[in-house]
Every structure is written in structure tokens, then in C-alpha cells.
């Protein structure tokens, strides 16, 4: 019976020593500093990517060859309201009226 108590005490003491040793380890402090360094690098990289992010049509179509080919066609389509209205009519989409008058007048 006493052997089990000694075994339990040894297991608990070694577990506690392991936890305290890993908590105060110099390697742990070094790794924490390295993690902070890499977080800073990735944060700077994300900030640069957000600053250089393209806006508008080029961002949607991308820089692929197909996107470069479609860019003038899409710009032409978006600049012509008759083409947009024709496409909406073919799809059966009705836009709400832009008048401020109520329908009953």
C-alpha cells in the first residue's frame, strides 16, 4: 500500500517540476520573442498588401490573361446604360422607380 502512495507522490512531483521547468525555461522565452518577431513581420506584410490593394474592376477581374482580355469589354458594358437595361430586361429583373412620386398619383 505504501508503494502506491510513494508512486503517486513521485508522479505528482515530477509533473509539477515539468510544468514549472517549462514555464521558466529560457528556451520558452526565446520562442516567445521569435513568435512576436514573426507576428510583427506578418503584420507589416498584411498592412503593405492592404495599402497596395487594387480597387474597382481590376481587383475583381484579377491579373490573369482572361481578366486582362475581359477588362475592356466589361468597362464598355458598364459605361453603356442601354446595354445594362437590355440585359436586365432579358433576365426579367425590374428596377424600382427612381421617382419620388407615389404610385397612386
Counting DSSP H or I runs of 4 or more residues, the number of helices is 5
How much strand? under 5%
- Provide the succession of SSEs: HHHHH
What is the helical fraction, as a range of percent?
Answer: over 70%
Kindly state the mean pLDDT as a whole number? Answer: 82
Q: What can be said about the biggest beta sheet?
A: none
Please tally the β strands and state the result. 0
Q: What is the overall silhouette?
A: elongated
Alpha-beta classification: mainly alpha
- Termini distance? 98 Å
C-alpha Rg, in Å? Answer: 33 Å
Could you name the ranges where pLDDT drops below 50 across 5 or more consecutive residues?
A: none
Structure notes:
By secondary structure, the chain is mainly α. The protein has a domain at about 55-95. The protein has 5 helices and no strands. The chain is elongated, with a radius of gyration of 33 Å. It starts with a helix and ends in a 14-residue tail after the last helix. The model has no long low-confidence stretch (mean pLDDT about 80).
In short:
With 105 residues, the protein is an all-alpha fold.
Task: Note the main attributes of this structure.
105 residues; mainly alpha
List the helices and strands and how they pair.
Elements (H helix, E strand, L loop, with lengths): L1 H22 L2 H26 L5 H5 L3 H15 L1 H11 L14
Amino acid at each position: 500500500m505504501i508503494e502506491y502512495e510513494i508512486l503517486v507522490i513521485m508522479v505528482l512531483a515530477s509533473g509539477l517540476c515539468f510544468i514549472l521547468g517549462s514555464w521558466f525555461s529560457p528556451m520558452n522565452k526565446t520562442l516567445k520573442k521569435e513568435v512576436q518577431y514573426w507576428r510583427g513581420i506578418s503584420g507589416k506584410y498584411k498592412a503593405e498588401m492592404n495599402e497596395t490593394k487594387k480597387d474597382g474592376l481590376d481587383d475583381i477581374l484579377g491579373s490573369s490573361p482572361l481578366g486582362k482580355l475581359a477588362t475592356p469589354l466589361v468597362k464598355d458594358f458598364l459605361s453603356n446604360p442601354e446595354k445594362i437595361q437590355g440585359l436586365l430586361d432579358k433576365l426579367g429583373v425590374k428596377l424600382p422607380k427612381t421617382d419620388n412620386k407615389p404610385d397612386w398619383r
